[in-house]
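User: Before I run my own analysis I want an independent prediction to cross-check against. Here's the chain; please return only the structure tokens and, at the end, one sentence I can use as a sanity check.
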Amino acid sequence: MDRLPPLNAIRAFEAAARHMSITLAADELNVTPGAVSRQIKGLEETLGLQLLERGHRQISLTRQGKEYHRAVSRAIDALRDATRRLKRRGQRKQQLKVRAYTTFAMRWLIPRLSGFHAAHPDIEVLLKASLEPVDFRKEDIDGAIRLGDGDWPGANAFRLVDNILAPVASPALLASGPKLRRPADLAHHTLLHTIARPDDWAYWLEAAGAGDAIDPRAGMTYESSAMVYAAAIEGQGVAMAQRFLVEKDLEEGRLAMPFKKTLDMRDFTYYLLTPAHRDETSPMKTFRLWMLDEFTKR
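Assistant: Structure tokens:
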């Protein structure tokens, strides 16, 4: 069975042939020029062929040397590629487990996650959706986006955004339906509600001075705000929106605000929560700083 030449000798020959210099090959391999020359000489003796023509301070490849160099280069490149692929597979991504509301995830977080993944390819975000209260001692998650006043026992809370309420509707509905000149005119329209936020219409109508003129519970109800916004875009009625979640729809003309009146929910807004009983993981810190920066850009 034919034996392969020593790998060190092949590496010395490949480097010398690529640089066309014994000295440069020695620098690359971090050995002396004499060591490179001896390795190549040994390789030639093993093969029974002359690979290099040696002149005064220069070398050149023989015909057999050129042929062997092409084959050796392809083999070394293939070995490097295989090694890189295996190393990439062996490097497990850091997992980050985050919980959010469905609407927040669909309308704000998911559209921006591609940017996070591009900036941090070593972090894999596992995103869960739930309305249930967060208990970091019982649940295997690193962070959660929640609505509240900023006071969560057992959690660090980072305020994300102002929660501004405003009625929205499709421009087509506003153009063809009953006129909406003042809040009392909402009596002639279908109000769209979400089970998750049943009191938003009542809060806004009271602030707009129309609490006695409009039934805040009348209309159609959907399971999530995401469904409500989709229904509003389709012209099924007027939705009470959290403005930051429909900004793109407002900018691109899928929705419009019939009134200037908005309601700032003050401190009842979105927070990013992390566990207070354990140290913040490096991926969670990266994600938290990224989220806060994204909201600062708005």
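Sanity check: The domain at 7-90 is CATH 1.10.10.10 (Arc Repressor Mutant, subunit A).
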